[in-house]
Amino acid sequence: MIGYKLFKQRKDGSIGPLFINARQRIEIGVEYPYEAHERKGFAFRPGWHICSKPFAPHLSKKNRVWAKVEFSFMDTIKRPESQGGIWYLGKTIKVLEIFNPNF
Fold this sequence. Notes:
mainly beta; about 45% strand
């Protein structure tokens, strides 16, 4: 499946997850399996969190970039539209391209 994921972009240009396992570095074209990490203050939802469209105003901030990703589907989570609407949970993820939509 194809979806969209928001990543933080570090000063060196590398990208990684926003909150959970935030030290991980993600490279374009490499497939990554999800790792189950618990973090205080966050709901435990194992899997890569992927949006159906590049839209999540509550998370869109400076030094964050959207990526078009390919993923293996695991589950769907319904969230408010202000939080991006439909989220998917993926078993694996592969970044296809990085971009910044004008939303």
